[in-house]
Amino acid sequence: SVLDPGPLEEIRELQAEAGNDLLVRVIGAYFDSAPGLVEAVANAVEKGDATALADAAHPLKSSSASLGALRLSELCKELEAIGRTGSTDGASDLLGDFLSEFARARRALELYTDEPG
After folding, report:
1. Domain count, the chain
2. Residue 48 within a domain
3. Contact (Cβ atoms closer than 8 angstroms) between residue 91 and residue 81
4. How sure is the predictor about 55, in pLDDT bands with cuts at 50, 70 and 90?
5. Domain that holds residue 36
6. I need a surface site. Which of 17, 51, 57, 63 has the fewest CB within 10 A?
7. What is the CATH number of the domain that holds 86?
8. CB 110: neighbour CB atoms within 10 A?
9. Please, which pLDDT band fits residue 23 given cuts at 50, 70 and 90?
10. What is the pLDDT of residues 82-112, one digit of tens each?
């Protein structure tokens, strides 16, 4: 599965207590920030900018994990670690998987928000 439902269910439980659209807002905030970070990761790999790679992968790692996109978070962790070495060597090998996993996670989150609460 693309998403671990645990983190999303925790948000749903909080939402039930708060009586609002917390899950939709949290996923919406992710959709607002994640595409720019994904683009920044891809650009950093293309330009060989290790600092930019680590700086973009780090927040995406955390936000993806918080929504249950654990495979994407793991790829971000690997890309961040590569960037922290001061090089982008090996990052291009992960880029295709990273981009396709982001697309899968995004679609799964879109479907998740369409489910009845």
Report:
1. 1
2. yes
3. no
4. very high
5. 5-112
6. 17
7. 1.20.120.160
8. 11
9. confident
10. 999 999 999 999 999 999 999 999 999 998 7
